[in-house]
Amino acid sequence: MAFENLGNKLQNVFKQLRSKGKLTEKDVKDAMREVRLALLEADVNFKIVKNFITNVTEKSIGSTVLEGVNPGHQVIQLVNEELKNMLGGSQSNLTFSAKPPTVYMMVGLQGAGKTTGCGKIAGLLKRQGKRPLLVACDIYRPAAIKQLQIVGKTYDIPVFSMGDTEDPANIAKASLAEAAANNNDVVIIDTAGRLHIDEELMDELRRIKENIRPQEILLVIDAMTGQDAVNVAETFSQKLGIDGIIATKLDGDTRGGAVLSVRAVTGKPVKYVGMGEKLDDMEQFYPDRMATRILGMGDILTLVDKAQKAFDEKQSLELEQKIRQNSFNLEDFLEQMQQIKKMGPLKDIIGMLPGMGNMQLPNAEIDEKAMSHVEAIIRSMTPQERQHPAMLNGSRKKRIAKGSGRTIQEVNRMLKQFDEMQKTMKQFMGGGKKSKGKGLFGMGKGGLFPF
Question: What pLDDT is stored for residue 364 in this prediction?
């Protein structure tokens, strides 16, 4: 997971600060030295690190300690603010032209994930009611056009192509007429990349840019390449001009320094980050949320967003009613498990909860298989047993254990945990009292099921 190592180290530094009732100038400088090393190890650009440490140190030493506030907490808040500023300050949305179609030009090196990124952005815009058209302007990479067509089919989005012999600048220009003829209000141009930046590539991109005058040029960078990604971003910004950045493969990079650096180096915002292969894994980038996640403060807003996408509103309301009436059973439990699995890996979900980041679980391994084991146990029950778990006697438990491939002890443990969970939920809901519209467990309409 991105920023995992950085998060661990920063949280350890701040744990020491919080334990001090009063901070001296030496305490602050010692802490900033550790922060500097953590940022450099995370592959953050050294000039950015220097400015970051200077700003935080000056503010920490020069600020008045607020009455009733732990000075360690005050330093952490200053780091949080500076980190947020480094990441861009506020979230940056895609802009749309006054007269359609809006044209986005995707650029970047080969292997950064441009083609897949084109499809994901198109899919997200389609969800917002847009009618996107994908355009195949990479005529060099073998099967590049075919790949874009497969991506388009995946998201049910049309792809415009003129083969691999026509000039890419002409293809891009012709796509605008195609969009107008078919009422497409968004055009996304998938351009060619290279293993390294060269003048031939830049010349071609400039010609495409002149022919279509894009609303935004979006640079796709591979977060796993670290400082190379920062150098690529700086070069594209200087030679072509870019309006925003999409950082891919953030789920596979535990350092994340590239994302921390590109905004400061280019002055252009990170608009989306790729956290996996699925459409939902392309997320809008929120600097404030990412800063608090890195510092172990959680990311409740993103968690709620994920929950609301994963959970069916009607099912959630019905579930809430069952909890109020104390009729929640294992059938409902199984249904909730299916919804939670849509939200992504448990480790990522838990990391978004305040106080449950890497600081509290530095060496913990989240057993993703545990959910499958519970699911197997419940599926081995009859519908009547799921609805009335109190009827499960010794012989029934033995049959369930055999059918699920688990032990009787595991079946008993799961039933005990389920019973305790029912009691907790009943207490949370106020013994059946109305929850004032906050949704299940106060986490929005979708709710979040704890286990």
Answer: 43
Angle made by CA atoms 392, 394, 396, in degrees to the nearest 5: 55
Separation CA 46–CA 58 (nearest Å):
18
- What's the farthest any 2 CA atoms get from each other in the chain? 76
Are 247 and 282 spatial neighbours (Cβ–Cβ below 8 Å)?
no
Which residue type does 432 have? G
Question: H-helix or E-strand containing 132?
Answer: strand 132-136
Instruction: Using CB atoms within 10 Å of the CB of residue 258, give its burial: 0 to 12 exposed, 13 to 18 middle, 19+ buried.
Output: buried
User: Which pair of structure tokens corresponds to residue 254?
Assistant: 């535990």
**pLDDT given at position 365:** 47
pLDDT score recorded for residue 450: 37
pLDDT computed for residue 41 by the predictor:
85
Weakly modelled stretches of the chain, pLDDT under 50? 65-68, 298-301, 353-366, 431-451
Single-letter residue type at 82: E
Residue 328, phi-psi category: left (phi > 0), alpha (psi -120 to 50), beta (remainder) = beta
Q: What is the pLDDT of residue 345?
A: 63
Contact 38, 9 (CB under 8 A): yes
The Cα 262–Cα 445 span in angstroms is 36
Residues with Cβ within 8 Å of 134's Cβ and at least 6 positions away in sequence, in order, are 118, 119, 122, 148, 151, 152, 157, 158, 159, 160, 188, 190
Report pLDDT for 123.
Answer: 93
- What residues have CB less than 8 Å from 414, skipping those under 6 apart? 374, 377
Nearest CA among 75, 189, 183, 78 for reference residue 129: 183
